[in-house]
């Protein structure tokens, strides 16, 4: 892992935000204060218990000016791989764990004249500290937030108290939908931000481009990669060692390399940060990342093994 050190924390308080979402307040064990962070930052949590080794990333949703506590919110997922279920069912107040230092792959653009946030469900979490940052600096913003109902809307009361204006809710049980057309007729210099299901991010990103937003004015956050439905297995050869590996259709190249003891630096695991980039000597890459430019993808010289795969039968990596 690229994180060189970790912070020991304990769960100071747990708040049930909605029937499926809990907020966890984390306080430092051995430090007087936690490292400062900016809006859009996340931490990775590390839990080791009874043979269980969980590593999950969550957006920080507290006030960036508060250094005595970190706050994260976690939704209990029906098809969890263990992360959200463990947090909801096993983690109690007083529970000790380790976390990474904050990282930010979803920062605010301070070149923007106006910021428009689009959140769905638990996707609201990074926007709270981002809006607090903007509010403290007197910057212009608005929030559009979709949820199933008011009961299922995390931080509903808190948002209304903190940000009494330019906040718009869309509850599907009331027949209200958050539509991408909201992005039309915004001021020149507006930046848009998306966080929620991948289907929403893809839809709104495409529409933003159709409406003429420059790619540099479009921002989104991902914490999980969507499996490629038509993924095929392929072979990888490491040029420097001569080792070869079989990559099954249901595993990433990065995971196979790590499990084989190959030390590949990584961080986000969703194709956003570029930390795991590896040079490719031969083979056709099936790019699935959001980091490389169109030109870099066309050049077929670099792969992000956390998400990208192979269109041909074999890749040879300069590794």
From TrEMBL:
CDD domains named among the record's database cross-references: fer2, PDR_like
Record-annotated FAD-binding FR-type domain positions: 4-109
Boundaries of every 2Fe-2S ferredoxin-type domain copy: 234-319
Gene Ontology molecular function: 2 iron, 2 sulfur cluster binding; metal ion binding; oxidoreductase activity
PANTHER family: PROTEIN YIIM
InterPro entries: 2Fe-2S_ferredoxin-like_sf (IPR036010), 2Fe-2S_ferredoxin-type (IPR001041), 2Fe2S_fd_BS (IPR006058), Benzoxazolinone_Detox_Enz (IPR052353), Beta-grasp_dom_sf (IPR012675), DmmA-like_N (IPR054582), FAD-bd_FR_type (IPR017927), FNR_nucleotide-bd (IPR039261)
Name recorded for this polypeptide: 2Fe-2S iron-sulfur cluster binding domain-containing protein
Cofactor(s), by name: FMN
Keywords for the protein's UniProt record, in alphabetical order: 2Fe-2S, Flavoprotein, FMN, Iron, Iron-sulfur, Metal-binding, Oxidoreductase
Classification lineage: Bacteria, Bacillati, Bacillota, Bacilli, Bacillales
């Amino acid at each position: 892992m690229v994180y060189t050190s970790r912070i020991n924390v304990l769960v100071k308080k747990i708040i049930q935000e909605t029937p499926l979402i809990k907020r966890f307040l984390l306080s430092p064990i051995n430090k007087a204060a936690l490292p400062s962070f900016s809006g859009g930052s996340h931490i990775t949590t590390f839990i080791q218990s009874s043979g269980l080794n969980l590593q999950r990333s969550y957006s920080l949703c507290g006030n960036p000016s508060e250094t005595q506590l970190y706050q994260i919110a976690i939704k209990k997922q029906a098809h969890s791989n263990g992360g959200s279920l463990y947090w909801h069912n096993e983690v109690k107040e007083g529970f000790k764990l380790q976390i990474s230092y904050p990282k930010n792959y979803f920062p605010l653009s301070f070149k923007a004249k106006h910021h428009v946030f689009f959140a769905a469900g638990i996707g609201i979490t990074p926007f709270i500290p981002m809006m607090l940052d903007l509010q403290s600096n007197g910057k212009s913003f608005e929030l559009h937030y979709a949820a199933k109902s008011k009961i299922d809307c995390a931080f509903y009361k808190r948002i209304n108290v903190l940000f009494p204006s330019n906040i718009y809710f869309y509850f599907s049980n009331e027949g209200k939908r958050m539509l991408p057309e909201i992005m039309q007729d915004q001021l020149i210099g507006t930046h848009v931000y998306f966080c929620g299901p991948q289907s929403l991010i893809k839809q709104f990103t495409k529409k933003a481009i159709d409406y003429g937003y420059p790619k540099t004015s479009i921002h989104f956050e991902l914490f999980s990669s969507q499996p490629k439905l038509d993924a095929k297995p392929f072979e990888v050869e490491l040029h420097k060692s001569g080792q070869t590996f079989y990559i099954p259709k249901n595993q990433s190249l990065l995971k196979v390399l790590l499990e084989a003891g190959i030390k590949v630096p990584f961080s986000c695991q969703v194709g956003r940060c570029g930390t795991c980039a590896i040079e490719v000597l031969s083979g056709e890459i099936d790019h699935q990342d959001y980091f490389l430019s169109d030109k870099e993808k066309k050049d077929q010289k670099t792969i992000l093994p956390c998400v990208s795969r192979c269109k041909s039968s074999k890749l040879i990596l300069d590794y």
